[in-house]
Amino acid sequence: MHNEMKRRIATALCCALMLAIAITPGAATPRRAFASSPPQAFSAPQAFSAPQAFSAPQAFSLMGASRALKGAAGIYEWHFVAARGPSPFDRIGLHRIASGPSAPAHPGIVMLYLPGTNMNGEVAVDDVRYSMPLYLAAHGVDVWAMDYRTHFVPPDTPAEKLVVMAGWTNRVFEGDIAAAAAFVRAKTHSEKLFIAGFSRGASFAYLFAALHPQGVAGLVILDGFIPRNPAPAMPAGRVADDIGGRHLTYDKRRALMEAVIRDPGGPAPLPKYKSAAENLEHVVYDADGVFGGHGGLANPQGGFSDPSVLARVLIGYDRWWPAVQNYQDYDNPFDASALRRLKASKIPVIAFASTNISSQWPAMVTESAAATGSAEVAVRRLDGWGHLDVICGTHAESEVYAPLLAWLRRHQM
Predict the structure, then answer these.
(1) Which CATH number fits domain 1-413: 3.40.50.300, 3.30.1390.10, 3.30.413.10, 3.40.50.1820?
(2) Closest listed residue to residue 295, CA positions, set 223, 171, 383
(3) Are 193 and 111 in contact (CB under 8 A)?
(4) Considering the entire predicted model, what is its pTM?
(5) Which secondary-structure segment (H or E) carries 204?
């Protein structure tokens, strides 16, 4: 594979859904926040030590009562939050999504879901046809979805207060995931969890499995893989990247999503489009750069996604992401030691791969799925699909959720 193609594929995964796309054709560069003074120098990624045991359960607090999800009869959500540092931004969250008003004490299948870049664990679409957590919960799976620290950074935070994000490396987030997993294990009395990840969340899932193989029943990989690029030097002073771009700013991006949610057939921000929904269709389909410009981000024009659903997913994204974790992977933790430990884990894997970002994308997903050394690896290629179509597309229920549920049941402890 040519170096340029490798770079584009790695970029697409690791920026995975920083939607800094212009409302006019072409992509915009994400705005970047810099510290007013250079932050403390970054240390090199730590080498992997021996496989780690789960830490003691983190002190998560239940945030209010459970809530019924109106669009999914009988499904309820519980929200937990834990402090992970002194800053008000150093928080993580968990959303438990399960069937019935009382959380199951001893669920048969427990899955921890790790979202992609700028994403969080909130239920974006209140409909089992377009939400993997809701679909699985409706079929008896106890699903826990994670909020990263980025979910606790308000969108209007000034640049000087974002400096805390300079230290939010992949390994820091992996520690957060380990704390969340320990809490889930304690609450559910489960020895092992299924770990699912979408996009960047897939690389987090592989990293977690390398460090904690004894606690993983299986990996669910949704259109992501293990980054292989060597880590370049981090630019001095850069701390956070904005999901908004020079053309489609954060506010304009949100306004477009709100217009589609309010009335898909209503006026479009750009007069050349017949409706707000058509405007969004072209934005996601034509998103070039890392997504290829031909439905790589999503393919509503091919019938693989619905703009109203996409708008609900995209409007829930968190604004800021730590620059050290951005598409250049300045602290790529997958060194030779990590890959050896992952290879020895023999964890079964099911992976789903879209095709529209590039012709090589499914091969990258497939290669990574084999990295656990398991004889039980299943990879499903989704021809004509864009990245977001895998988790909320019009065919996701039949082609992703249903086969995933069958796989979970086969591998249930």
Answers:
(1) 3.40.50.1820
(2) 383
(3) yes
(4) 0.89
(5) helix 200-211
